[in-house]
Amino acid sequence: MLVPSMTLAEIKKEIDKDFPIVRNKGIYVQRKLLHEYKPKGGETIVKYFDYVSKYKNNWIIRFGLNKKNTFSNHITYYYGDKGLLAIAPVDNGALLTFHTTHFFKRFNERLNLNLTLPKDIIRKFMNENDRYEVHQLEEYSRGVFSIFVAARNGYILGTHDKNLRIIRMNTFITFEMLKCDQRSVADKLNSEMKKYPYDPEKFNG
């Protein structure tokens, strides 16, 4: 079970043993959903599944179902010392993406979502950012980069540690907050990122 006192190594070990079971459960649920809903034409059906795993971790699985393709993404969440922390395994768990308390607060506030339940905030984020591309900004040290993601309603700022194979999503800013010419966007993003010094053992915040 994920708990606030865990180190990065312990978190990775926990997810390594949990995620394959969760992924298999998701495949089973996805088959049932396809049988039940049978999407037609260009229709895409989105469904969520809340799951408490064998190891007592809380997971949310988002399914996208259409006639040609099906896809899913997974997030596990728990409460750290400062609040909600969520982790998304990427590439079958080869990369872990951490979403901090501060990130979810800013995502909720800056989009004026007025959501109070953590699960609702996570679902909203998953629904609007089921696919994204990471862009590097500056290299802090060998293999460690500041990054940004151009999401549907703004920019996600964070850090990518390629050595440890983790991404930490630190904060969210709207496009309106960066009203400037394209050339200076990277400078403003870099300036904002300097507020979040990188420490690989500090996941929440």
Describe this structure in words.
Strand 8 and strand 9 form a beta hairpin. This protein has helices spanning 8-37, 101-110, 118-128, 182-193, and strands at 44-52, 58-66, 70-80, 83-90, 95-99, 134-141, 144-150, 154-161, 166-174. The chain is globular and about 50 Å long. 25% of the residues are buried. The protein has 205 residues and is α+β, with helices and mostly antiparallel strands. The chain is built from 4 helices and 9 strands; from the N terminus they run αβββββααββββα. The mean pLDDT is 87. Helices cover 31% and strands 36% of the residues.
**Element pattern in H and E:** HEEEEEHHEEEEH
User: Helix/strand/pairing class, anyone?
Assistant: alpha+beta
Mean pLDDT: 87
Strand fraction: 35-45%
- Uncertain segments of ≥5 residues (pLDDT<50)? none
- How many H/I helices? 4
Task: Tell me the radius of gyration.
Answer: 17 Å
Instruction: Give the fraction of residues assigned to helices.
Output: 25-40%
List how many beta strands DSSP finds: 9
Strand order within the widest sheet? 1-2-3-4-5-9-8-7-6
Coarse shape:
globular
Index terms:
205 residues, alpha+beta, 9-stranded mixed beta sheet, 4 helices, 36% strand
Show the helix and strand layout.
Elements (H helix, E strand, L loop, with lengths): L7 H30 L6 E9 L5 E9 L3 E11 L2 E8 L4 E5 L1 H10 L7 H11 L5 E8 L2 E7 L3 E8 L4 E9 L7 H12 L12
Parallel strand pairs: 5-9
Antiparallel strand pairs: 1-2, 2-3, 3-4, 4-5, 6-7, 7-8, 8-9
Summary of the model, kept short:
With 205 residues, the protein is α+β, with helices and mostly antiparallel strands. It has helices at residues 8-37, 101-110, 118-128, 182-193; strands at residues 44-52, 58-66, 70-80, 83-90, 95-99, 134-141, 144-150, 154-161, 166-174.
